[in-house]
Write a structure and sequence with these properties.
Layout lengths: L3 H7 L7 E5 L5 H8 L4 E5 L9 E4 L13 E6 L8 H14 E12 L18 H9 L4 E7 L37 E7 L8
Parallel strand pairs: 1-2, 1-4, 2-3, 4-5
Antiparallel strand pairs: 5-7, 6-7
Helix pairs in contact: 1-2
Length: 200
């Protein structure tokens, strides 16, 4: 379920938009986008059934079965890092084709420890941060990168008597107990056809 935070991060951009999700591993991620207010979620290349507001289609070759400029967002979370390099480039080009002028293309990868030093292992189809950025920058004029890091810490909460009215908690993030900042475990790229930052 490491992929679900990526869907959560994308919720801010889906309101009233038509979203295409490529090869998700299950319905949970697309459901999050739908419940966050997407107008329609079209899933391509999945084996779970359609639901109200979420149409599921089988993969149909290398081209997306969509008209030029017909969708607001193309999302490839679980599958992107595992695609062959040629398939990734084709998906990026085709994603650009089907997006509207203000559309977003979103891709997510795992950052393997051995690849965390600015290089992809020889012969590996896996991407590192720099490879992801380079492949997307070849097609899209703007990329915003988000790092997903595992949470490290603890929480303390007051114990209240039953007859005491509950209060909204005051949250505090304190990092001085960490030896080092946590390393990113995954990266989410949000690419835009426009040079202006995505709204949200």
């Amino acid at each position: 379920m490491y992929h679900l935070p990526a869907y959560l991060a994308l919720e801010r951009w889906v309101l009233a938009r038509t979203v295409v999700v490529i090869q998700p591993s299950g319905p949970e991620g697309p459901r999050r986008l739908l419940s966050a207010g997407a107008r329609q979620v079209l899933v391509i290349g999945a084996d779970f059934p359609s639901e109200p507001g979420m149409e599921v289609r089988p993969a149909g070759g290398s081209r997306l079965p969509l008209r030029d400029g017909s969708v607001d967002m193309v999302v490839c979370i679980e599958a992107f890092g595992g695609l062959r390099s040629t398939d990734r480039r084709e998906l990026l080009r085709d994603g650009y084709r089907v997006l509207r002028a203000d559309g977003l293309f979103c891709a997510w990868i795992e950052q393997r420890e051995a690849e965390a030093f600015g290089r992809t292992l020889a012969g590996s189809s896996q991407l590192d941060f720099w490879g992801l950025e380079d492949q997307i920058a070849a097609i899209f004029p703007r990329i915003d990168m988000l790092a997903q890091m595992p949470w490290q810490g603890f929480s303390l909460a007051p114990i209240l008597d039953e007859n005491v009215a509950p209060e909204d908690p005051i949250l505090a993030l304190r990092e001085e107990l960490l030896d080092d900042a946590p390393e990113a475990s995954h990266y989410l790229a949000v690419a835009s056809k426009s040079r202006t930052p995505p709204g949200g």
